[in-house]
Amino acid sequence: MDRKKLKTYRDRLAEERSALLGVVGRNEDYGREADTEATQDPADKASNSYTKELLFSQSTNDRIILTQIEEALQRIEDEEFGVCVNCGNEIQPKRLEALPWVRYCITCQDLLERGLLNEEE
Ligand SMILES: [Zn+2]
Fold this sequence. Notes:
0% strand; 2 domains; 64% helix; binds zinc ion; single chain; mainly alpha
């Protein structure tokens, strides 16, 4: 993958990560810091609600995605980004554009969803 593209993905992942950290953190602090919203600048607020809509509202899912985003950023560092962690084939560009933190190509994702792939953690 060319550097320019890689940088775009890195920026996007970093952005999603901070938005998500805001969401995850806020859920944990919910009740304690009810007025945090008021001190946030509007741009932050907008990207948070965008992420919230884009992703799922459950914080468990947020956390899973957060981990996947961090792994994806690490793969960019390691120059392994865009390659399926299971079979080593390139992940379809359309798939990466939709969800830049995906770990598997469509074939392996399908195997995973059918319980035919052992995820090493
Ligand atoms: Zn694969």
